[in-house]
Amino acid sequence: MPNNQFKRGELYSVINGMASTAVARRLQKNFRQAGLEITIEQWSVLYHLWKEDCLSQQELCNRTFRDKPSITRLIDNLEKQKLVRRVASKSDRRINLVCLSDAAKELQELTITLANQTMNEALIGVNKEEIETVKQVFQRVYDNLT
Amino acid sequence: MPNNQFKRGELYSVINGMASTAVARRLQKNFRQAGLEITIEQWSVLYHLWKEDCLSQQELCNRTFRDKPSITRLIDNLEKQKLVRRVASKSDRRINLVCLSDAAKELQELTITLANQTMNEALIGVNKEEIETVKQVFQRVYDNLT
DNA sequence: GGCATATAGTTAGTTATGCAACTAATTTCA
DNA sequence: TGAAATTAGTTGCATAACTAACTATATGCC
Q1: What is the distance between the alpha carbons of residues B68 and B95, in angstroms, rounded to a whole number?
Q2: Chain B residue with the nearest C-alpha to that of A122
Q3: In strand D, which positions have an atom below 7 A from any protein CB?
Q4: What confidence tens digit (pLDDT) does each residue in A71-123 have?
Q5: Do B116 and A14 touch (CB under 8 A)?
Q6: Which residue of B has its CA nearest to A14?
Q7: A31, A36, B30, B33 from A110: Cα distances, Å
Q8: What is the maximum alpha-carbon separation in chain A?
Q9: A70 touches strand C (CB under 7 A)
Q10: CA distance A45 to A54
Q11: Nearest nucleotide, C1' to the C-alpha of A32?
Q12: CATH number of the domain located at residue range(s) B2-145 in this protein
């Protein structure tokens, strides 16, 4: 059924379009209005370090779904802002452990509150079952493609 | 309930994370393997022009959810590749109408087929109701934030 | 008519992404 | 043990994104 096919193709712009763009812009705007100078991409790296500090760059690649050059440069910029530092691993000299500074630890509460507020705004009128479905579909899509 | 709050914050990475990245990378890869040199962002512009040719740059901003500088440079690159050309509007000299070349018209069928195939791969095991829910949630999120 | 305002598009600077090619350290295994 | 393959990270190049500031044209209104 070609008509169904066509609609499936259009789904690309659903998954990768207006909503994700709008959420990203709003979260970045909310950070800026709170006086935070970090980008949402930098924040996503910090987010994983708050859960577990001193991860290797490769581990950050895995957890943030970015490639190695992207992480290299995000860490470069976070290091310039004194939010993280690279610490050489003692057991494997190829590895940099990326560790949070005290300044970065202080950002955790505020930024996560802002992210929660942003998502609460975004999800007004969306119920738990629908959210659960979106999460399941996205996990399925990811699994299908990797 | 703070626990629920926290989970909502995590949803940012659902909407803007692994799945959308994976779909974008796969579609770009499928274009490349078919010998197509266009980016998915350029394709998204062409997509709207195939539906309606000779739109203004502002109208392309609205339909692709991009800002004006982004469209300016996408059109610059599409023009370099001879896929579109800027045509001055006769009724309003501020406006550039962006019109498809014959070469661009020939890309329509193949690229849309590739997009459909990519989304079929991505959506294996996802049923129509779930797809409908995702579309509704994303529309709602967009409306909530704009 | 003419000045203020709004709209269309461009340019400059910073950050981020993808890919390919590279260095350095580690592991594998014949 | 030592050469080949793997893994961790970096660098260079191209494209794309956002912000802010800019030019040019059009519109509104006194």
Answers
A1: 13
A2: B141
A3: 7-13, 15-21, 24-27
A4: 999 999 999 999 999 999 999 999 999 999 999 999 999 999 999 999 999 99
A5: no
A6: B135
A7: 9, 10, 41, 44
A8: 59
A9: yes
A10: 11
A11: D19
A12: 1.10.10.10
Q: What is the pLDDT of residues A8-27, one digit of tens each?
A: 667 888 888 788 999 999 99
Residue B75: CB less than 7 A from any atom in strand C: yes
B46-94 pLDDT, tens digit per residue, is 999 999 999 999 999 999 999 999 999 999 999 999 999 999 999 999 9
Closest nucleotide (C1' vs CA) to B89 is C8
Whether A133 and B134 have beta carbons less than 8 Å apart is answered as yes
Rounded distance, CA A139 to CA B118, Å?
Answer: 16
Please state the domain extents for chain A: 2-145
Dihedral of the alpha carbons of B58, B64, B69, B70, in degrees to the nearest 10: -150
What percent of chain A is helix, strand and coil (3-state, nearest 5)? 70, 10, 20
Q: How many residues does chain A have?
A: 146
For tokens 């079952």, name the residue.
A129
Whole-number distance in Å between B64 CA and D17 C1': 13
Shortest distance between the Cα of A89 and any Cα of chain B, in A, equals 28
ipTM of the complex: 0.86
Residue type for position B45: V
Asked whether the beta carbons of A100 and A84 are under 8 A apart, the reply is: yes
**Residue A18 identity:** M
For chain B, how many residues are written? 146
Which residues make Cβ contacts (< 8 Å) with residue B82, sequence separation at least 6?
Answer: B101, B103
Query: How many other CB atoms sit within 10 Å of the CB of residue A48?
Result: 17
Q: CA A136, CA B18: separation in Å to the nearest integer? A: 12
Residue with tokens 């959420």: A23
Non-local CB neighbours of A117 within 8 Å, separated by 6+ positions: A30
d(CA B50, CA B43): 10
Q: What is the token pair recorded at A87?
A: 């610490």
